[in-house]
Amino acid sequence: ADVHDQTLQRGKGGELHQTAGDGQPVLTTAQGAPVADDQNTLRVGARGPALIEDFHFREKIFHFDHERIPERVVHARGYGAHGYFETYDSLAAYTRADVFQRAGERTPAFVRFSTVAGSKGSFDLARDVRGFAVKIYTKEGNWDLVGNNIPVFFIQDAIRFPDIIHAVKPEPDRGFPQAQSAHDNFWDFISLTPESMHMIMWIMSDRAIPRSFRFMEGFGVHTFRFVNAKDESTFVKFHWKPKLGLQSVAWNEAVKINGADPDFHRRDLWQAIQSGNFPEWELCVQLFDQDFADSFDFDVLDPTKLIPEEVLPVQPVGRLVLDRMPENFFFETEQVAFMTQNVPPGIDFSNDPLLQGRNFSYLDTQLKRLGSPNFTHLPINAPKCPFAHFQQDGHMAMRNPTGRANYQPNSWGEGPRESPLEGYRHFPAEEAGPKVRLRAESFADHYSQARQFYISQTPPEQRHIAMALTFELSKVETPVIRERMVSHLLNIDETLAGKVAAALGIDPVPKPADAAVKTRQDLEPSPALSILER
Ligand code: HEM
């Protein structure tokens, strides 16, 4: 309203009151009582003390005082959008998942992109993994594909997740650095975690500073299963391929952008969608069976490994289009609760130990963050298909079972019932063995794929990796950590290790790190991977 606004009236103390009328509704309390004056607390005389009787003031301040909820323990900074998933062709031969049965069918979806390490108010262009979490509201329940823009992960077992996240977040005594992996704790952990080397090559590459969310890939990372109507299983890896292709910024650009516009990625997505320039990704799959999995030297259950697309090409099976921004950031983007264990019938898990741990973790964290077991009652988290169960009560219950029966079986002819035919059937994989805390030997090669990634990069991209490692390790104050990192790099690429050692002034160059399996050449080359050598 400008200064000539007729609805503006001056109060006795010179304050401006804007009054209802002309189609503008009357301001009320949360209880619905109309409010006469929202500028002055109730007091004794114009200059006297405030009165505790002022229920409007009390309610307004009370609600404000409770606005914050915990930020996500990881991936705190994110940005979401609505859209749809469109199936290209029926995948009935592989999966009974309803979302993949009919060509051309569109299913509503919500996506949240994020950085991992920084807090909610950190900057967008951090060198970091980007979360790429997709919720597809299928006719048989929500399917959450909670992925990243990098196809592998730092660790092989979920039990290590608190350690890697503690190590990357600000150091507990000094509370910095914010949103920055360049510090001793992070590189200390990494240098003591050879399994992270493949992921480190990706993180030090241009992939970790994408130009925008619209120019990045997404990956389900783990091996999942498709299960068809005959209960036959096919292993599947999920990939999102951006229609615009892949683009990144250079590190010096990222640093400047962060200073000039810390919301660069948010603004980009907002502006693209608001101007009708809808970003799009193709969902692609790599499908394989147990025999194919057995042909690799590495284990398809190991989330630090990928199946090269040259060995097993990806097949496009659908597309994701983002065409609508949330009406309210908090209501949708902040309250959306992704969980890897949200799968419809026809999509199932493998024994990847990281995936198994994630399936356990996300339910817990949503309760902590959103504060009530009824977080599925929030519109952004509720399924968009019919659903019925006997869960009831709890904080903020918005829906309870109706009628007399809140249990089953019951004699009242009320309520939902089991359906062996339509219901979710877990794939009956045969499992046997001693109860042990033991990692499989098939997880032991930590360097081959790190090298494969490095040598697949163009010379300028390789230079960027060397520069990123040099910059990051130059921030590390403890010499032994830098040396340990160089000793790992020697198992990945000697030239790269030499460049980084020279730039950091490490002389003499340390010996290569001890490794159970150093390189793929130490093993018999597998028939599948030998394709890559040609
Ligand atoms: C959040 C991906 C590993 C625990 C997220 C989010 C993404 C993601 C994209 C953000 C979701 C959102 O936008 O709301 C991944 C990927 C992983 C991985 C791709 C490995 C391949 C793990 C592991 C754990 C874990 C191993 C724990 C055992 C969490 C937790 C959150 C989270 C607690 C916060 C969820 C929330 O408060 O909404 N993860 N994550 N993640 N992840 Fe993971």
From TrEMBL:
Give the E.C. number(s): 1.11.1.6
GO molecular-function terms, A-Z = catalase activity; heme binding; metal ion binding
How would you classify this enzyme at the top EC level?
A: oxidoreductase
* Coiled-coil intervals, chain numbering: none
Name all Catalase core domain ranges: 28-416
Q: Which reaction does it catalyse?
A: 2 H2O2 = O2 + 2 H2O
List the biased-composition ranges (Basic and acidic residues): 1-15
Please give the function described in this protein's UniProt entry: Decomposes hydrogen peroxide into water and oxygen; serves to protect cells from the toxic effects of hydrogen peroxide.
Protein's recorded name = Catalase
Parent-record interval covered? 14 to 547 of 705
